[in-house]
Amino acid sequence: MALRKGMHADLSADIRQLYERLGVESAGEHQASAVEFHPDIFLVASVDDLTQRWKNVRSSTTITANGFQLAATVPAGKRWTVQIIHVVRTSGTFTHEGLQVNDASEGIKVQYPGWTAGTDHTVEPYNRITMDELDEIYINIGSHSVNGNLNLNMLLQEHDIS
């Protein structure tokens, strides 16, 4: 739905987009009376969820040893909300078996449940992973015999925080 000329002309682009997405219109003479809610029921919408766009981001790294290897870093001035991480070995001979998120500002590391060692795995956390600038994702390399490359293909929202 496009906004009528002059309707909410002073709204920011994000609010205008929200109005369009929800189909909000002036009720004018026609008041909405067909739907009634209990006084304790509140309709809630997350503005972030409605205005942000999901995007695919790929991070590639070279694997040269066993153990936790840095695979991705949130850029300065950004925040990521990660929905899915697909871990793929693209060359070399090694397996991966776990994921760890490092909160760079607090020095806290959270290890997510591991998986059977393999060359291809998708991580779909129960709750989205929110990461601030310079936070890091590490992948646990279980066995390594030939150096190679690893990709993280991530579905995420990227927010400006500066």
Short key terms for the protein model shown above:
single chain, disordered N terminus, mainly beta, 9 strands, 2 domains, 2 helices, Jelly Rolls, 46% strand, 162 residues, 5-stranded antiparallel sheet
What can you tell me about this protein's structure?
- A hairpin with a 4-residue loop joins strand 4 (93-103) and strand 5.
- The strands form 2 sheets. Strands 1, 3, 6, 7 and 9 form a 5-stranded antiparallel beta sheet that branches.
- By secondary structure, this protein is mainly beta.
- It is elongated.
- 9% of the residues lie in helices and 46% in strands.
- The protein has 2 domains: 13-50, no CATH class; 53-160, Jelly Rolls (Sandwich).
The span between the termini is 32 Å
Overall residue-averaged pLDDT value = 82
Radius of gyration: 22 Å
Please write the string of helix (H) and strand (E) elements.
Answer: HHEEEEEEEEE
Protein structure class: mainly beta
- Segments where pLDDT lies below 50 for 5+ residues? 1-8
Biggest sheet, in brief?
5 strands, antiparallel
User: What's the β-strand tally?
Assistant: 9
Overall tally of structural domains: 2
Helix share, percent: under 10%
- CATH class value of the largest domain: Mainly Beta
